[in-house]
UniProtKB/TrEMBL annotation, chain A:
Protein name stated in the entry: F-box domain-containing protein
Gene3D superfamilies: 1.20.1280.50
Ranges that cross the membrane: none
PROSITE patterns per record: FBOX (PS50181)
InterPro entries to which the protein is assigned, alphabetical: F-box-like_dom_sf, F-box_dom
Pfam assignment, any one: F-box-like
Sequence ranges assigned to domain F-box in this UniProt record: 4-50
Highest rank taxon of the organism: Eukaryota
Organism of provenance: Planoprotostelium fungivorum
UniProtKB/TrEMBL annotation, chain B:
Name used for this protein in its record: S-phase kinase-associated protein 1
Domain called SKP1 component dimerisation: residue spans: 119-161
Gene3D superfamilies per UniProt: Potassium Channel Kv1.1, Chain A (3.30.710.10)
The SKP1 component POZ domain, residue ranges: 5-66
Length: 298, 170
């Protein structure tokens, strides 16, 4: 092929300039082309050159709408290809050609039952009320995205069986970046997690909440808020954050960079610039923890 | 006083005459000329540009010689207009025709425009390649640009997990 290697010739800065002409969606696509491009796209400077202010006003909202529309396309996850992946995964064989795959019936088996009207452990605590509406939406969105992801779905479904009895209640240790390790107390009821700081730092003193989460149905992830404040607990506020389970006894709290938090709506971009804290049970060392599956920014 | 035409030597040892106006559209040649004011005009060596590509660049310069110089006035426009200015639509019909070339030629022109620092041409080439990338799946991009897929399955799975999948997924 004549053009082979042509693009590798381009200096990184030229490729970067080409990429500045792309929208977020295309950037996320080119990121998956090769590791070199992944590095370029992962580089913070490229995201800085993108002017996100107008993007936020116009494109991002369209993008979000577009992605929503795509996710809600029922035909997409009912496709034969999806069915074959599940079947193959189940039997530990390579994926069979779509033509020979059983489609609708097998697929139905893996459908998660509808969300119950009153979720178990549903609590009338004031802070959980905040999430009740969001919870249903989260859960539905979660399921749709898993259906779409295909191969991950079965794994998640199995996890869900394992994790449904998981109990977050108790004392945990969390790594708060420059503040070091701090102890927190977790109160877990139903799909809601509330936390209280047992160790204080310059920003948030002990006895104040640190994050609250609404868990997804499989309890493997959650969305919610993280408690932020300036030094000496000035201007306390809640910022968007999410929870990602690492294993049955540790999880990550992820939140967008504080200064940039209000700027980013796009889901893809949200994951490109996040910071995280790992939380593990009190009295255990973080070295024991398995590596997280999430790629880190930068 | 410097003459009206400048001669340059390309990588394949050809000497090409180009008008001062066209030469000055390249910041690289322009600064070379400024550095050598008063000196005898010898052919300027351009070791990174072939004659074939330089001719294309001159073609573009000829068509755009009367364009207003790119100024920073974009900043004064409102944000939405600025965004429009940033998107990758190629509006000029002549330009559309110009970029309708083999990928090898496009990449050569892009490199030459980068080296010669011809801003408008470089922008055009960036836009064109960006347009080529848009709306394609990673597989299609690899095929189009002849790029080796060196990502492992784990990398891909991690990416899918982090960002979710889109219709463009391979």
């Amino acid at each position: 092929m004549e053009s082979l290697g042509m693009f590798e010739m381009l200096p990184t800065e030229v490729v970067t300039l080409v990429f500045t002409k792309l929208d977020v969606r295309s950037l996320c696509t080119v990121r998956r082309v090769c590791s070199h491009w992944d590095k370029i796209v992962g580089c913070q400077s490229l995201w800085k050159t993108l002017d996100f202010k107008p993007y936020m006003e116009t494109r991002a909202l369209e993008e979000v709408e577009y992605i929503r529309k795509e996710l809600s396309d029922e035909n997409l996850w009912k496709s034969e290809a999806c069915g074959s992946i599940f079947k193959a995964k189940e039997h530990g064989k390579p994926a069979v050609p779509a033509a020979t795959a059983t489609t609708s019936n097998e697929w139905e088996e893996w459908k998660i039952e509808p969300l119950p009207q009153t979720p178990e452990g549903g609590n009338s605590d004031s802070s959980s009320k905040v999430f009740i509406k969001k919870r249903k939406a989260n859960w539905e969105e979660d399921i749709v995205s898993k259906k779409l992801r295909g191969e991950d779905y079965l794994e998640h479904y199995k996890e869900w069986h394992l994790l449904r009895h998981i109990d977050f209640n108790g004392q945990w240790t969390a790594c708060y970046g420059t503040h070091g390790d701090e102890d927190i107390l977790v109160k877990h009821y139903g799909y809601t997690i509330d936390t209280l700081k047992l160790t204080g730092d310059i920003h948030i003193p002990a006895g104040k909440p640190t994050f609250r989460m609404c868990l997804s149905r499989d309890l493997a992830s959650g969305e919610g808020e993280i408690h932020l404040a300036e030094a000496n607990y000035e201007g306390p506020r809640w910022g968007e954050a999410s929870l990602q389970l690492r294993s049955s006894d540790s999880f990550d709290i992820l939140w967008p960079f504080q200064t940039a938090a209000h700027q980013f709506i796009s889901h893809e971009f949200y994951w490109a610039v996040v910071t995280s804290a790992c939380v593990w049970p009190y009295g255990r060392k973080p070295e024991d923890l398995p590596p997280s599956g999430l790629p880190r920014a930068g | 006083m410097a003459s009206e035409s400048i001669s340059v030597t390309t990588s394949d040892d050809q000497t090409i005459q180009l008008s001062r106006k066209h030469a000055q559209m390249s910041q690289t040649i322009n600064s070379m000329l400024e550095d050598s004011v008063g000196a005898d005009q010898e052919a300027i060596p351009l070791p990174n540009v072939s004659s074939e590509v330089l001719k294309k660049v001159i073609d573009w310069c000829t068509h755009h010689e009367n364009d207003p110089a790119p100024v920073e006035k974009v900043k004064k426009l409102n944000k939405k207009r600025e965004y429009k200015a940033k998107n990758s639509t190629i509006s000029d019909e002549w330009d559309k025709n110009f970029v309708n070339a083999e990928l090898r030629v496009i990449v050569d022109i892009l490199l030459a425009a980068n080296y010669l620092d011809v801003k408008g041409l470089f922008e055009l080439m960036c836009k064109h390649i960006a347009n080529e990338l848009k709306g394609k799946t990673p597989d299609q991009i690899r095929e189009r640009f002849g790029i080796q897929d060196d990502l492992t399955e784990e990398d891909k799975a991690a990416m899918r997990k982090a960002w979710g999948a889109t219709k463009n997924d391979s």
